[in-house]
Amino acid sequence: MRMKRFALRAGFILLVLLSGFAVWLPSQYMVPILMYHHVGDNPRSKSQASMVSPENFARQMKYLHDHRYHVMSLDELVTAIAQKRDLPRNSVVITFDDGYENNYTRAFPVLRQYGFPATIFLISDLVGEEGYLTWEQIREMQAAGLSFGSHTRRHPFLPVLDDASARDEIINSRKILEEKLGQPVLYLAYPSGGYNEKIEQITREAGYKGAVTTNRGFARLNRDVYALKRVRFVNKSSRWPTIWLQLSGYYNVFRQPRDPD
User: Fold this and answer.
1) Cα–Cα distance between 67 and 214 in angstroms, integer?
2) 67 and 13 in a common domain
3) Which residues of 112-130 are buried (b: 16+ CB within 10 A; e: fewer)?
4) Residues 117, 69 share a domain
5) DSSP label of 105
6) Is residue 21 domain-shared with residue 107, that is, in the same domain?
7) pTM of the model
8) Strand, coil or helix: what is 229?
9) In this structure, which of 11, 34, 111, 187 has its CB flanked by the most CB atoms within 10 Å?
10) CB–CB of 28/253 below 8 Å?
11) What is the pLDDT of residues 124-158, one digit of tens each?
């Protein structure tokens, strides 16, 4: 009899906990911002850790298309966050860091095939260098509807810079890109995701509409548009159970928060 009562009580407590979790979890939904770097297939590359193969990238984009994901621009997302507007639970944003040439040769044809918007964050002083996008390639992608943001001038870890150097990287990279692209550059990606209160303030003062990081920061939800967390996509995270979790909108619930600087 005691065991039966214990089992009933335990079952009731478990039911209450599960019910509470079911009520709480939807409030933790966050539109996934996908973060890519290289789209390539060189197994000897030093950038292998930040690489997704062209086959995996094409497969992931096909999955988004076939499952009718709402692939939206970063600007659409930031506007919705600022307006505190709910978005469809199958929404997703695509971004690339650094501006590698393979973003044009390997990723761009797939994005264009499906008509997906994306934002590529450029290291302004490396545009045209070996392995990086050229201005001609950038303008072609821009004409096709892709957006471009700043990834600073030289890709330093911003929190360790003095005030003048940080302002140079954040403000002047934007000026260079705007002069070359002929349109406003609205978003910044913090190199290696590093930022602090000073860096965020400079970013605001520089006129950016928002900024993205990696998994840095202790808040789990993307309510601060100057500290938007993203989901990193690389080859080793290309198994479908992992991808499903990354695209679910609840990935940050299960990740360990990191110090922003």
Assistant:
1) 26
2) no
3) eeeebbbbbbbbbbbbeee
4) yes
5) I
6) no
7) 0.86
8) coil
9) 187
10) yes
11) 999 999 999 999 999 999 999 999 999 999 999 99
